[in-house]
UniProtKB/TrEMBL annotation:
Belongs to the cytochrome c oxidase subunit 2 family. Keywords: Copper, Electron transport, Membrane, Metal-binding, Respiratory chain, Translocase, Transmembrane, Transmembrane helix, Transport. Residues 355-388 are annotated as: Disordered. This is Cytochrome c oxidase subunit 2. Binds a copper A center.
Length: 388
């Protein structure tokens, strides 16, 4: 309501100023003032110098933004093998854009000034110039072709997964508004899945009767071993999501009804990343802001904020609904030994389903035990093959 009142007051003020200028103009009628609608030399000079003023404004804004916000884009210290390629591509593109815009803006504003209108001066009729046109066409063609070819080369390299390569297959399951990870287990093949199988603890809709699903493990935290290639298979339960792992320079859409994939090799563990100077500086800055906010909260009698520690995150990068902003999952990168130890502690999905369906007194048996509630297996629901 306050904002509406402020807007109304501003509009009324603008109308009042406009009316006042009209009255002022009327009082000047008959004076020595030039009332012609055609620009004279003075007008053209003013506009010419304003062009220069605008150029200076653009440059100052640019320098200010680079100095103040330049540290925000993730363009150094990637945590994946291919991350360096993405960063290089980004650096080359940004530097080229920077140089080109500095030169073209200067030329544009300089010529606008130089050829500003002058009394009695006529514009020169200039039909065309093949040499000039050739130069300003061929330079962008060469630069853009180089950028596109380099980009395509980098993209093909990043997306290529050798079928015989030793990779760990992990499924990322997206839904409004959380993530789940499904590990393919010892056989490294994911069991079939379909949204119609979702029931109780089987939140990812895995066909628990599928032999490949017997050793699948579903977790709410994504653990990855350092130095091992991970092949992610993405699925979505409801709408379009996007699996975004910024520190690994990885992103892929999660589309309902199909499986998409992305593979990368983590090169830094979470604890190594926490010790990196860039991250140490960022964390210190965030905690400074949090400490200030905590003081305000304490003054209001509320609880203070916890200090922040760095963690890799899997985020959703498609606006998928009201809580999209909070759709994230923690990623822990660790040494292979720690990863294997963690993996051993995770129960298989089949054993969890069995425990859920078993009578209270029955104990959970091995992961390959037959499934009691396999009624859905006979429903003939088509499954999405998620195996490699
Ligand atoms: Cu989402």
């Amino acid at each position: 309501m306050t904002s509406l009142l402020v807007i109304v007051v501003l509009v009324l003020l603008a109308v009042a100023v406009w009316q006042l200028t009209k009255i002022f103009d009327l009082t000047q009628v008959g004076g020595l003032r030039d009332n012609s609608q055609i620009a004279n030399d003075k007008d053209n000079n003013v506009n010419g110098y304003l062009m220069f003023g605008f150029l200076v404004f653009i440059y100052i804004t640019m320098i200010y933004c680079v100095a103040k916000f330049g540290h925000l884009p993730l363009m150094s210290n990637p945590a994946s093998e291919h991350g360096t390629d993405v960063d290089n591509l980004m650096w080359i593109s940004m530097i080229l854009i920077f140089i080109v815009q500095i030169i073209t803006q200067a030329l544009l504003h300089y010529f606008s000034f130089k050829y500003r209108g002058k009394q009695g001066q006529k514009a020169l009729y200039f039909a065309d110039n093949d040499k000039l046109e050739f130069i300003w066409t061929i330079i962008p063609v060469i630069v853009l072709a180089g950028l596109i070819l380099y980009g395509l080369y980098a993209w093909t390299n990043i997306m290529f997964v050798d079928e015989d390569e030793d990779v760990i297959v992990v499924e990322l399951y997206a839904k409004q508004f959380s993530w789940e990870a499904r590990y393919s287990g010892e056989d490294n093949v994911l069991g079939k899945a379909n949204v119609r199988y979702i029931k109780g603890v089987n939140t990812t809709g895995v066909d628990v009767t599928d032999p490949n699903a017997q050793d699948d493990r579903v977790t709410n935290e994504l653990h990855l071993p350092k130095g091992k290639k991970i092949l992610f298979k993405m699925r979505s339960q409801d709408v379009l999501h996007s699996a975004y792992m910024p520190h690994f320079r990885a992103q892929m859409n999660c589309v309902p009804g199909m499986v998409t994939q992305f593979a990368f090799t983590p090169t830094k563990t979470t604890s190594e990343m926490r010790q990196h100077p860039d991250i140490v500086e960022k964390v210190a800055h965030i905690n400074e802001l949090r400490a200030k906010k905590s003081q305000e909260l304490i003054a209001k009698g509320e609880t203070a904020l916890d200090p922040y520690t760095f963690d890799f995150l899997l985020l959703c990068n498609k606006i998928c609904g009201a809580s999209h902003y909070n759709m994230q999952m923690k990623i822990v990168v660790e040494d292979e030994k720690d990863f294997n130890a963690w993996m051993k502690e995770q129960p298989t999905l089949v054993s969890a389903v069995k425990a859920e369906n078993a009578p209270e007194e029955t104990e959970v048996v091995g992961p390959t035990a037959p499934i009691k509630d396999s009624a859905h297996a006979a429903t003939g629901v088509p499954t999405i093959p998620t195996a490699r």
